Amino acid sequence: MLIDWHVHINDPKFSRPPWWITPVPMTIENALAAHALIGLDRTVISNAVHYIRHMETVKETVAAIESSNRYLAHCRDQHPDKFVTTATCVPGGGDEFLKELERAVKEDDARAVIINSSHKGQYPDADIARPFFKLVGSHLGGGICEVIGRMDYAYELLDFSVFLGPYEPMLIKHSPSHYLKMMYFDSACYAPPAAECCLKTIGEDHFLFGTDSPPMVPLKKKGFDMMSQIGMTPAQYAKVMGANAAKLLKL
């Protein structure tokens, strides 16, 4: 099974000014075209709802997220043999956001949740956000696979790294890489050495094929072809290209 974990479709209600100044390429039509381009079995659709940063009230923000979640479910219902839907949520936003997430899971059959790196100065590592436990980091997790070795030595050699600054309070009991390997990362990048670094850092059981296409449909083929250039065995390839995502999504 070939599954692209990382594809965006924007809610048409928020695809024009003042929410977006330029034409929005994250459309169902482009998602279908990209799906066909490389013969995917499933496309996991999501909406990063970047426009909610402009909203002032919780009521307005939750309504926008609900609209997006319902639209993605509608797209899935139109193409159940192609799309798997995710719900959007603000993990530290409060009960209103969690109630909408519960509705999306129960009513819309959302199989995963997309969250942004922050919202209104609140970050996913805040105590209030702890109910979110299985994380898939997009775009190889940023640059963390490149710097994890430095993070580990700062933890392991505390007596020698005091000149870097204080590390109190120490909130972890293992090295950072121990926790990193509990996460999942998608492959949405277009540089084989970088993707190979991520694969070797977290292992094939926690690596997912993703292209972030749309927005840019031509990147679908580039992201797909890259996966044959990072040294995977056939067994690893099968896991990364679909089996891992299917397990997480309970397909």
Task: Describe the protein in words.
The protein is α/β, with parallel strands linked by helices. The protein has a single domain (3-138, 184-249), classed as TIM Barrel (Alpha-Beta Barrel), CATH 3.20.20. The protein is globular and about 55 Å long. The protein contains eight helices and eight strands; from the N terminus they run E-H-E-H-E-E-H-E-E-H-H-E-H-E-H-H. The strands form three sheets. Strands 1-2-3 form a three-stranded parallel sheet, sandwiched between helices.
Tags for this model:
251 residues, alpha/beta, TIM Barrel, 3-stranded parallel β-sheet, 8 helices, 8 strands
Number of strands: 8
> How much beta, percentage-wise?
5-15%
Helix content: 25-40%
N-to-C CA distance: 10 Å
* Widest beta sheet: strand line-up: 1-2-3
Calculate the mean pLDDT score and round it.
90
How do the helices and strands follow one another from N- to C-terminus? EHEHEEHEEHHEHEHH
Under CATH, the homologous superfamily reads: Metal-dependent hydrolases
Structural class: alpha/beta
Give the overall shape.
Answer: globular
CATH fold name: TIM Barrel
Number of helices, where a helix is a run of at least 4 consecutive DSSP H or I residues: 8
How many distinct domains? 1
Q: What top-tier CATH class fits best?
A: Alpha Beta
Which residues sit in consecutive blocks of at least 5 with pLDDT less than 50?
none
Brief summary:
It is built from eight helices and eight strands. The chain has 251 residues and is of the alpha/beta class.
